[in-house]
Amino acid sequence: MIKDVFKGIEYSEDTEPIYKNDRIKEINKTTTMNNHGKVSVSYDFQIVQEFDKYENPTVIYGYNDTSRVEIKFVNLKNTSIISIVLLAGYSTYY
Fold first, then answer.
1. Long-range CB contacts for residues 29-32, cutoff 8 Å, separation at least 24
2. The whole model's pTM is what?
3. Residue 14: phi, psi to the nearest 5?
4. Does residue 24 carry a pLDDT above 70?
C-alpha cells in the first residue's frame, strides 16, 4: 500500500496481485484520493489473457470499472518489443 499526504490532499493506492497455478492472473489496484474532504475512488484491473512459452504474460486486458465489461486497453507483449493498443484513450506503460 502506498499512502501520501500533501497539503491536505491524502492519496492511497492498494495493489493486489492474484496468482493462479503459480502464474500472475490479475493485478487489481484501488486508488483513493481525499482532496480537502472530496473523496474519489478509482479502479484499475489488469487481467492476463495469454502467456508465452516462458510463462511471461503476453496479452493483458485492462479495465477501470468493477464490472470488467468494457475493455479500456489491450497490452500486447513479446520478449523483444512492447506494443500497446489503446482503446478509449487510456495508456499504461510497462
1. none
2. 0.69
3. -120, 120
4. yes
Which pLDDT score is estimated for 78? Answer: 64
Q: What is the pLDDT of residues 66-92, one digit of tens each?
A: 888 888 888 887 644 444 444 444 444
Per-residue 3-state assignment (H helix, E strand, C coil) for 29-46: EEEEEEECCEEEEEEEEE
Q: Which one-letter DSSP state was computed for residue 56?
A: -
The three cell numbers locating residue 66? 468493477
Please tell me the distance from the alpha carbon of residue 77 to that of residue 59, in angstroms, as a whole number.
Answer: 6
CB atoms under 10 Å from CB of 47, counted, come to 17
Read off φ and ψ for residue 56, nearest 5 degrees.
Answer: -85, 140
Q: Which residue has the higher pLDDT, 1 or 50?
A: 50
Q: Which three cell numbers mark 86?
A: 489503446
- CA-to-CA separations, 70 to 4, 8, 66, 75, in angstroms, rounded: 30, 34, 10, 15
